[in-house]
Amino acid sequence: MIEVKNLFKSYGDKGVLSDINFSVVQGQSVAIVGKSGAGKSVLLKCLIGLVKPDEGTIYIDNKLINTMSFRQLQKIRSNIGMVFQFGALFDSMTVGENISLALHKLTKLSDDEIKERVFNSLKDVDMADTEDLMPSELSGGMKKRVGIARAIAAKPTYLFYDEPTTGLDPVMTDSINRLILKFQSTGKVTSVIITHEMRTVYDVANRVLLLHDGKIWFDGSPEEIKNVDDLVIQQFITGNSTLV
Amino acid sequence: MFRFLLYPFNLLIDSLEGVGRYVELMASMFRSLFSWHKNLSLIVDQMFHIGVLSIPIVILTSLFSGMVTSVQAAYQFESGFVPNWFVGSIVGESVLMELAPMMTGLVMTGRIGATIAAEIGTMRVSEQIDALESLSFDPVSFLILPRVLAAAIMFPILIIIADCFGIIGGLFAAVNAMDVSHLEFIRGLRNWFRPWDAWFGLIKGLFFGVAITSIACYQGYYTTGGATGVGRATTATVVISCVAIVFLDYILAAILL
After folding, report:
1. Is A210 helix (H, G, I), strand (E, B) or coil?
2. How many pairs of residues across A and B have Cβ atoms under 8 Å apart?
3. Is the dihedral of CA A183, A189, A195, A198 positive or negative?
4. Of A77, A54, A78, nearest to A66 (Cα)?
5. Which of A89, A208, B230, B257 is least crowded, fewest Cβ atoms below 10 Å from its Cβ?
6. To the nearest whole angstrom, how far is the Cα of B100 from the nearest Cα of chain A?
7. Is A161 near chain B, with CB under 8 Å?
8. B24 touches chain A (CB under 8 A)
9. What ipTM did this prediction achieve?
10. Reduced to 3 states, what is the DSSP secondary structure of residue A216?
11. What is the pLDDT of residues A164-198, one digit of tens each?
């Protein structure tokens, strides 16, 4: 379970997050949406301890992560798979090495088991037989898939996605959405998805948080957000810039 | 309107902040020294990149610096009051104490410092460092420690190579540019040679290596602002490293000699 209480974060004079409160229960799939610069990625990075909040508390599995040392954070992170916006693959390593690196660090599997796990993770994202390719040889969509394979390889209970479908064509977007759904359908994974693509929200999320002006402007189901009579929300979900 | 008056103060505050962050980063690097064996393969890999691949450029620059020292010494001795074999002494002392470490340091700033800053800076702006952290890796012991440790080991070795080729270059130029025989040159070389002078050069190399790589790692690690930021970090690395080298050169000479 994830619990965020009274979270504040600012950079210099610019407030990014202001009094954020929410919790995510086990097995939920939460989409955090908002305009570019609304603080979505900062919030996600706060959840994994990559960014320290100015105020507030974040609990993951009832453990307060704000005040944790690096070693304590390592234990928490070993249970979280993070998919970065552009894949964030290590460009000096092959696809296979990108995935096995995490497994060597996070698990006590033998080399053969790791090899098998790498193969299966890549197969899960329809990228089988690409172990020996370098990230520079992959397209944007393929990089995101490998990023997902790396995140799921250690079988985490939390999966955080930072704009998993941004910049992809509709077919690839659908394919990534199906992947997210596939991992979610096991029931063992809790997902937090940062996105500004409403299609991804409707396809994969069972709860939506909309960030606006550094605050949570809406918290409800994807069905509810469609019918809310609020200009900010309607502008966002319809993509109509003349509404506000 | 008078914002420009605040510029020196802001610059001073930014510089002090930078020094603080550098010290903090180095402190966590030294703390991770205890787990160096976990990244042994990375250290060996960096030793190859920093050390072995730099040998050709180090040979080339040291060879020519030895040769030019020899030719200029010969030019000074044209009066005839100084015996020709003194060329060996001049070349030997200049190369061992100053030219080999200094030239190697400056060349390596461009070759290694800029590369490391660009490499780590690109990793920062493309979220690869965040990805490392999310996979429970400590980026300091994974990225910074191997580079600094490899430089600390390989720089003195490169200085030894630079010493040898600097003296060979000096010998070659002395024999060809003036009427000095091999034996006379070697006599001059041995006449003024003190083992401490060679050690002094190696110690300087060690400090230069650590300074260049740690500055490059620091600049890369705190890169912000995409491709422009990487460019800024690379330029800053070269400029700050060059200044650090001449500064350290003076400090070490004042302390050790």
Report:
1. strand
2. 47
3. positive
4. A54
5. B257
6. 32
7. no
8. no
9. 0.88
10. strand
11. 888 778 888 888 888 888 888 887 899 999 998 88
